Amino acid sequence: MRKKPVRVAVTGAAGQIGYALLFRIASGEMLGKDQPVILQLLEVPADGPQKALKGVMMELDDCAFPLLAGMQAHSDPAAAFRDADYALLVGSRPRGPGMERAELLAVNGAIFIAQGRALDAVASRDVKVLVVGNPANTNAYIAMKSAPGLPRKNFTAMLRLDHNRAVSQIAAKTGKAVADIEKLVVWGNHSPTMYADYRFATVHGESVARMIDDQEWNANVFLPTVGKRGAAIIEARGLSSAASAANAAIDHMRDWALGSNGKWVTMGVPSDGQYGIPGDTLFGFPVTCENGTYKIVEGLEIDAFSQERIRITLAELQGEQDGVKHLL
Ligand code: NAD
Ligand code: LMR
């Protein structure tokens, strides 16, 4: 028997990440090849984006996806989020060449207050929210704080792109297959201060840290490469990453909804005080996912180098949160 369709809201649906994302959701890559979806697409009311969104929907039609059970275009979050089971908050202003992420805070804060309130008012009480739009952790924090009627754990921020970038760099360094690298984590903020940590990583049970055994490479090559990858792509493309960001969003939601099969993945989730991160901070943690829920991996040893990295990324996040306090 066919499954009942679920409602997937996507904001910024006519943008470049939207274009790399919607077709994959509709083809079943996010929620499974047996799960029909209804796409509830949000764009700003201006004619240009709304017209572009119509064009994307024409293309979705032309794919004749068997799992696409319906789609709607909206300019009002309260309509787009109605009964949503999943919400991917992509729409926001992207960072251009030379622009600092902190500058985005003011512009994007207002968007995520309105969208948090709308989710609170009309979405499913179990809605799984992923914030992609930057600054992702703080935008997710704002949305969570603006939706007091929804469980805090429903709000997550995307660090999976950083996680995937780190996995790729480790695979290249060790000559091992991407698929065999386990137990990697990216702590903290989706920004250059993030701390990609391979101390616990293994390949078929063998320690990656022991394989690499080069702290100089870790501090001076690996961490800057992963941390500044977003800026490097903007520099090279003149646009921020899109296909890899959409891919990471699919990975994040798929693992959350369908389980990570015991594997660690990185998600930005509200802290409950783990590892000394103050409650509510939307922080990149190692998690495992099962039965539609995630669980932070606890009890990992944090050495002095890691403690300092975590302190730096936490301080940045707290600065961002302080910067939006007056908006909340
Ligand atoms: P884009 O400019 O191509 O598309 C964004 C779209 O969002 C536009 O069509 C715009 O009209 C729409 N939009 C703006 N405000 C909106 C609102 N209030 N409601 C609905 N739609 C709205 O940008 P993009 O390249 O698709 O990137 C989107 C966001 O994702 C940016 O903030 C970017 O920095 C961020 N990003 C995050 C990651 C990550 O790893 N977390 C990675 C890449 C990009
Ligand atoms: C990325 O990591 O590619 C994006 O967040 C873009 C950016 O602004 O760094």
UniProtKB/TrEMBL annotation:
It catalyses: (S)-malate + NAD(+) = oxaloacetate + NADH + H(+). Signal peptide: none annotated. Pfam families: Ldh_1_C, Ldh_1_N. The active site is at H190. Keywords: NAD, Oxidoreductase, Tricarboxylic acid cycle. It comes from the Bacteria. Substrate binds at R95, R101, N134, R165. Its EC number is 1.1.1.37. It is an enzyme of class 1 (oxidoreductase). InterPro entries: L-lactate/malate_DH, Lactate/malate_DH_C, Lactate/malate_DH_N, Lactate_DH/Glyco_Ohase_4_C, Malate_DH_type2, NAD(P)-bd_dom_sf. Residues 6-155 form the Lactate/malate dehydrogenase N-terminal domain. Residues 160-325 form the Lactate/malate dehydrogenase C-terminal domain. GO terms for molecular function: L-malate dehydrogenase (NAD+) activity. Belongs to the LDH/MDH superfamily. MDH type 2 family. Catalyzes the reversible oxidation of malate to oxaloacetate. This is Malate dehydrogenase.
